[in-house]
Design brief:
Number of domains: 1
Distance between the termini: 25 Å
Number of strands: 5
Strand content: 25-35%
CATH topology: Glutaredoxin
Order of helices and strands: EHEHEHEEH
Number of helices: 4
CATH architecture: 3-Layer(aba) Sandwich
Radius of gyration: 13 Å
Oligomer: single chain
Length: about 110
Amino acid sequence: MITVCSEEALSELLQTHPAVLILFGGPHCGVCQAIKPQLEKLASGEFPMLVTAYIDCQESGGQLCAARGIFSLPVVQLWFNGQRFAEFARVFSIGEVRTALERPYHHLNDD
């Protein structure tokens, strides 16, 4: 999982990769730390072209999170071709993320 700390790095990531999953979390968020390896496993196992990124909202990426309107944790955003496709906040399952990824991800292979 790529760690992103600035708006410039995030913009570049979203522009250069067709499929991106972003986890907004923090080291003091138990749920964030629990789902991080699960999301990495999901991406590498089922969606190998999906780039995963982590933004630490409690420390290094606090300003970036505030600028993006992230005020509760965890938040997962799915981006396809530079556009936000889905967002999950606070209470969600890995299955919901998987379901949201399936259709747009498989369309990437059609192009």
